[in-house]
Amino acid sequence: MTNAEPVVGIVGSGIAGLRAANALLACQVDAKIVLFGDEAHPTYNRPGLTKNRYPASGDLASLITRDLQIAGAENGAFTRRLGTSVKKADLRGKVLHLGTGETVAYDRLVIASGVRPRTLFEGGAECGSHVHRTLRSLDDARSIHRELQQRRDVTIAGAGFVACELASLAREYGCHIVMLESVRNGPFESILGSDIARALGRWVRQNGVEFLTGAAAADHLCNAANPISENTGAPKTSHAVPPSGRPLFIEAIGSVPNAEWLHGNRLDLSDGVRVDMLMRVAGYDGVFASGDIARYPDPWAVGSLTRREFWKNAIDTGTLAGKSVASSLGHKAKPSGIRYFPSMATDIFGLRIQIAGNPRSADSMEIVNGDLRRLENGLLVSYLRDGSAVGAAYLDVGARFNRRYIELLTSLKKH
C-alpha cells in the first residue's frame, strides 16, 4: 500500500489486542491503529469473571462491568471499533471483511481473536432438561452470576481453571454443586499429574461439592437426543433469565480458537495460528498473532510449539506482537523474542494454587514440603526432567512455604 500513514489492524479487543496497541503507541510509530472487537465492551479483566462474588442487586451488570474494566491508552492514532466483527481476511490482498459489510485495507495485521468455549454437542445443541451456559464474555458472567444468586442447583462439566473457580464461586453463593470430570482423575491433571489431581478432587469434595469422575461423571452428562435450541458453533449469545426450576448446566470443558475468519489463506490453523518467536505468521509479511490464539515455539521445551490461555501469556505475547509490528515499520528497537517465565495462579475454596515453569514436560515429581492428604497445611512440589527442575507448584491456604517456593522459582529461572 502507498498510504503516507500505514494502517495497523488489530482483530480482537481482549488484553492481547490492547497490549499490542499500547506497545505500538509506546514506540511512537507513525501509524493509524484500528482495533476491532466482537463485544460492545471495552477491554476488561477476563480472569475476574469467575473470581468475584457480587451482592444481589438490580445493578449487577454495572457492578461487574465497572469492577473488571481495564484502562487503555488513549491516543488520536488509536481507534476502537467495538461491536464490530471481522468475518473474513484476505491476507494476500491485505483486506478485512467486516460484519457490517465494509472492507478495511491494512498494512500490518495483529491476529488476537482469542478462543471461545468448547461445547458438549456439535452445533451448540442443548438438552431439554437444563439451562446450558458457557462462560467467556462479560455478558456470560452477568447471566451466570445472576443465576447463581438464585441459589439454584448447578452442574459444572469440566475440572479446569474456569470450572473450579466457578464451583468455588457457586459455593459462596450457596448453590448445590455437582462437578463432572469424565476424562481425568481430578482438577488440573494435564498440568500437575494424577497424584495432585486426585488430592485436589478430595479437596473439592471436602468443600461440599459432589465431584464425579470417569464413568460416574459420564453417566451424568447431558444428551442432545432432544435438543431445544441449536446454533452454528459460535458462542451462545442468549442471556435471558432461565425458566424457574430448571437446573443450570455450565459447560467448562475447554476452548476452540476463533480462527474461522482466517480460512482460505493456507495458514496452519490446526491449533490456533502458528507464529515464530517474534509472533510473525509465516508466509505473510506484516501479519502477526498474539494471545490465546497464537501457537509459538516453546522456550521451555525446545523443538515444541505451545499455545497458552493464561492472562500473563496474553500480556507478554500482545506486547511482543506490538513491538514486532513497530520494528517492521522501521522502529529502531528490535524485539528479542518470547522469553517469558510461565506462571499462573488460582484460588479454589480458599486454597491458593501457584504453578510455574513447565510441569507438563517433567518425567518425575518430588514433594518438597507437605502431604497430599492435607492440602490445607501446604504442599510444595518440584517437577523434574532428567533430574533437573523444570516446574514447581505450591498449594496452601496460607503462605507457610512461600520462601521455599521462591527459592524453587529462582532455580527454575537459572535453569
- Rg over alpha carbons: 22 Å
What is the general shape?
Answer: globular
How many E strands?
A: 23
Largest sheet: 5 strands, parallel
Strand content: 25-35%
Strand-pairing-aware structural class: alpha/beta
Helix content: 10-25%
Strand arrangement within the widest β-sheet reads 3-2-1-7-16
CA-CA gap between termini: 45 Å
Overall pLDDT: 88
> Poorly predicted ranges (pLDDT <50, ≥5 residues)?
224-243
The helix tally amounts to: 9
Describe what you observe in this structure.
With 415 residues, this protein is of the alpha/beta class. Helix content is 24%, strand content 26%. The protein has a 5-stranded parallel β-sheet with strand order 3-2-1-7-16, covered by helices on one side. The chain has a 5-stranded parallel β-sheet with strand order 9-13-10-11-12, sandwiched between helices. β22 and β23 form a beta hairpin. The relative contact order is 0.14. About 5% of the residues have low confidence.
Structure at a glance:
The chain is 24% helix and 26% strand. With 415 residues, it is α/β, with parallel strands linked by helices.
Q: Layout of SSEs?
A:
Blueprint: E1 7-11, H1 15-26, E2 32-37, H2 60-68, E3 78-82, E4 86-90, E5 95-98, E6 103-105, E7 108-111, E8 115-117, E9 131-133, H3 138-148, E10 153-157, H4 161-172, E11 176-181, H5 189-192, H6 194-206, E12 210-213, H7 214-220, E13 248-251, E14 255-257, E15 273-274, E16 287-289, E17 294-297, E18 305-306, H8 311-328, E19 343-348, E20 351-357, E21 364-370, E22 379-385, E23 388-396, H9 402-414
Parallel strand pairs: 1-2, 1-7, 2-3, 7-16, 9-13, 10-11, 10-13, 11-12, 15-17
Antiparallel strand pairs: 4-5, 5-6, 8-14, 17-18, 19-20, 20-23, 21-22, 22-23
